[in-house]
Write a structure and sequence with these properties.
With about 450 residues, this protein is an alpha/beta fold. Helices cover about 50% and strands about 15% of the residues. It has 19 helices and 16 strands. β11 and β12 form a beta hairpin. α3 runs parallel beside α4. The chain is extended and about 95 Å long.
Length: about 450
């Protein structure tokens, strides 16, 4: 059951309330003034505080703000002998759960305590979720020890504590949104909203409405005012992914937000003012887009205040083993499979792959391997055959040698196995070789 702290300088009232609440099975602690109340709060994990408004060493109304700031999950019920509207309003503003007059009906206190406890429990769960989210998206959880990724993390840590606009560049699947969220969580806006939008996922009209909102009557179906992302993220962070896909006329509106902190909603003639931090990301070369007339040069210089280039997986192959182990652990837990190891041959095959899809592609390959694997270890045989074909072709194109005929044979066998969906008997028939020969070549080429 919950733990309740009663703070009142009148011993009879403290004792009566304590008895009533204790009979419900709650653990009740008493204090005669604010000084002792603070000590009790430091010593115990209190869920609900029932506090008198007028105490020898201070006001319960003012005290409620102090303890809500320090212990945001607990709830406060204020008691007063002579209630007045002004104190009641200020108490609620300061974070009190309720404000009631002493002696009304002591039976009312129990339902009120239950409701306050329910709210306190919800507060605790929300705080836990916020901590988990912060842990999920933090610089400490970005995997990799290679020089290039550590350099990107170090740069991101430095800019996170500022309000500077950040431009994240790099290929698709390099983790730009993870970096954006980590920058937000490490900054002074971490308690405010982080809202991400993919600029390539909407038409011009829908993107404008998504970003800036609209006034009632702006278009058919707009029956009431609607906030856009910038307004929802006020005092927080907006992450504009694939900003290179944003239409030119919307780029002009975005430029106004960056320059003046204001914009016009769709159908409005009065500017809305906001204070947001913008983090943008793109896999395009924006300077080439400027030259082609697809991106505004003035906007480019406003968003490119601090550029962080995220390396491709090809540039950080030293991190493949650590990333693979992480994905194996999370995916195995999700699928219920007990796969605990990755063979050296499997990792070597991964290192030879071109990784055009970067980390996202690696995760997909590990997941497919987990599904295909019957044992407790990932080995080359658990790699999808189409993946092995691409890897073999890539490896062969890099280095033609005396073994190029063997490489060609390996690729041909892989393609045949892929065509037969792994049916070795059918593959041997199509290749016009014996099944024993096929098994020998599979073993020889580590297919």
């Amino acid at each position: 059951m919950g733990k309740i702290l009663i703070i009142d300088d009148e011993e009879k009232i403290r004792t009566l309330l304590s008895r009533i609440i204790s009979l419900e099975g709650f653990d009740v602690i008493q204090a005669s003034d604010l000084r002792n109340g603070k000590k009790r709060l430091e010593m115990s994990d209190i869920d609900v505080v029932i506090c008198d408004v007028k105490l020898p060493d201070g006001s319960g109304v003012e005290f409620s703000k102090i303890i809500k700031d320090k212990y945001p999950s607990l709830e406060i019920i204020l008691l007063t002998a002579y209630g007045n509207i002004e104190d009641g309003v200020q108490a609620i503003k300061n974070g009190a759960f309720d404000y009631i007059t002493k002696g009304d009906d002591n039976n009312k206190i129990i339902p009120l305590v239950y409701r306050a406890l329910e709210k306190a429990g919800l507060n605790k769960r929300l705080l836990q979720l916020e901590k988990q989210l912060g842990k999920r998206y933090s610089f400490d959880t970005i995997i990799g020890k290679s020089k290039v990724i550590r350099s990107a993390i170090d740069a991101a840590k430095k800019v996170a504590v500022t309000d500077a606009t950040v431009l994240l560049t790099g290929e698709t699947g390099t983790g730009k949104e993870v970096f954006a969220q980590s920058i937000h969580n490490a900054g002074n806006r971490s308690k405010q909203n982080f809202i991400a939008v993919n600029c390539s996922a909407f038409s011009k009209e829908l993107l404008e409405n998504e970003l800036f909102g609209h006034k009632a009557g702006a278009f058919t179906g707009a029956v009431k005012d609607a906030k856009g992302i910038f307004e929802e993220a006020n005092n927080g962070t907006v992450f504009l992914d694939e900003i290179g896909e944003m239409p030119l006329d919307l780029q002009a509106k975005l430029l106004r937000v960056l320059e003046s902190g204001e914009f016009l909603k769709v159908g409005d003639n009065k500017a809305t003012k906001v204070n947001v931090r913008i983090i943008a990301a793109t896999n395009r070369d924006l300077e080439e887009e400027i030259a082609a007339g697809n991106f505004r040069e003035d906007l480019y210089y406003r968003i490119n205040i601090f550029n962080i280039s995220l390396p491709s997986l090809r540039e950080r192959t030293a991190d493949i083993a650590e990333l693979s182990e992480y994905f194996l652990k999370t995916i195995s837990a999700k699928t219920g499979k007990k796969i605990t190891a990755i063979s050296k041959e499997y990792l070597e095959t991964l290192r030879q792959h071109p990784w055009k899809g970067n980390i996202r592609e690696l995760r997909n390959i590990i997941e497919r391997s987990v599904i295909l694997t019957e044992g407790s270890e990932l080995d080359p045989g658990s790699l999808p055959s189409d993946f092995q074909i691409r890897t073999a072709e890539n490896s062969d194109s890099k280095s033609l040698s005396a073994f190029s005929l063997a490489s060609a044979e390996k690729i041909h066998i892989l393609k045949t196995l892929n065509y037969t969906s792994g049916n070795k008997a059918e593959a041997a028939r199509l290749l016009e070789i014996g099944i024993a020969t096929l098994y020998r070549k599979i073993d020889e080429y580590k297919i």
